[in-house]
Amino acid sequence: MTPTGVLVLADGTVIKGMGCGAQGHAVGEVCFNTAMTGYQEIMTDPSYAGQIVTFTFPHIGNVGTNEDDIEMLNAASRQGARGVIMHAAISAPANHRATRSLQAWLEARGIIGLSGVDTRALTTLIREKGMPNGVIAHARDGVFDLDALRAMAAQWPGIDGMDLVPDVTSLQRSDWHGGKWQVQGGYSAGEAAKFRVVAIDYGIKRNILRLLTANGCAVTIVPATTDADTILALKPDGVFLSNGPGDPAETGKYAVPVIQKLLAEKIPTFGICLGHQMMGLALGGRTIKMPQGHHGANHPVKEHATGKVEIVSMNHGFAVDALSLPAHVVETHVSLFDGSNCGLALKDAPAFSVQHHPEASPGPQDSHYLFDRFAAMMAANRA
Fold first, then answer.
1. Whole-angstrom Cα distance, residue 112 to residue 139?
2. What is the pLDDT at residue 289?
3. Which helix (H) or strand (E) holds 232?
């Protein structure tokens, strides 16, 4: 059978397979994700902008797709993963929630897929050599200009030094409505609003917004470049710093001064993922590029204060350097895989952040207490 899809890495390596989804090509950083479920949420997570996702779980697509499990705020946006790599071919959907197959969904959203790949070998390559730049391509006739694809992969500058937030942030201010999903009845209306929260959108996920609403927050979403005075004029009880893609040091050039001013006002602040990294930078720390990053739903993270180990969802290629944090900042969580920083809190202000995604529920609710903590912090600050 003639291969109809290829992955071409920046070092010239060519991996052939069967193309699926949209035709064409896309360039990005190749990472791997170890989650066994949630492939639609992963592919629509704005934090994956600029990346091609290799799934280590062999069967992707067996529960189909639906419109409820899209994570990006603008459901029609295509600014999630640029491509997807799988071991097995996409099977017909077998789930009562499915509205169409993964093949049809990928094609409709312009996402290029590649199956028939030895994903274990590719994962080993990433673990040993780091996340490479690459081009994923799909052509039904199986004709590829490999030299051109090699050149494209080699010339792409990579995510290190790249600000991708402008591609995924909201264009204007909006209010969020909607609570958690329930087995009977789908998504709820949320709890009665007790607090006003401004969420700075660096690429926010919908389920974060649902859990904020479920904890009594009326949420106003603002674009990533919104200035501090505009946020303060909304009189928030708390500020949320969202997840997002790209190099935090680049996004920090305009985001850090805003966060520093908000922290100076002692407004309760909670950050997740890129928001955690922005918090670290705003406090005087630095971020570092990780060789392979953390991408999966089975990562053990320890909370220092309690000794509790949580199973969490992660998606990040940069990390806060714990050794760079000043004395008035305490490390709250640490990865048990590699000892990297996964949380911080201020000793002299009501602010904290975590690197992992507590809203993604792999535990399934190991980390939901963080949203309760944010609500309690706002209540105490108001009192």
1. 10
2. 98
3. helix 228-233
Active site members: 273, 357, 359
Whole-angstrom Cα distance, residue 148 to residue 169?
Answer: 32
Widest distance between CA atoms in the chain: 69
56-69 confidence digits (pLDDT tens): 999 999 999 999 99
309 touches 336 (CB < 8 A): yes
Contacts of 308 (CB under 8 A, 6+ apart): 302
Distance CA 201, CA 251 (A): 12
Fill in the DSSP letter of residue 167: G
Give just the sign of the alpha carbon dihedral 153, 159, 164, 168.
positive
The Cα-based distances of 118 to 103, 151, 188, 209, 380 in angstroms read 20, 24, 41, 37, 53
Question: Mind giving me the DSSP string for 270-333?
Answer: EEETHHHHHHHHHTT--EEEEEEEEEEEEEEEEETTT--EEEEEEEEEEEE-GGGS-TTEEEEE
By 3-state DSSP, what share of the chain in percent is helix, strand and coil, each rounded to 5?
25, 30, 40
What DSSP element (H or E) covers 67?
none
Residue with tokens 């094609």: 107
CB distance 203 to 165 below 8 Å: yes
Average pLDDT value for the chain: 96
Token pair for 42: 């992963």
Q: Please give the pLDDT value at position 137.
A: 98
Task: Kindly state the average pLDDT of the residues 294-314.
Answer: 97
Q: Are 242 and 203 in contact (CB under 8 A)?
A: yes
Q: Residue 62 CB: number of other CB atoms within 10 A?
A: 16
Contact between residue 311 and residue 298 where contact means Cβ atoms under 8 Å apart: yes
Which three-class secondary structure state does DSSP give residue 140? coil
Domains of the chain: 5-155 (3.50.30.20), 165-382 (3.40.50.880)
Q: How far apart are CA 227 and CA 230, in angstroms?
A: 6
Q: By C-alpha distance, which of 3, 282, 333, 319 is closest to 142?
A: 3
CA–CA gap between residue 22 and residue 58 (Å, rounded): 20
The residue type found at 285 is G
Residue type, 88: A
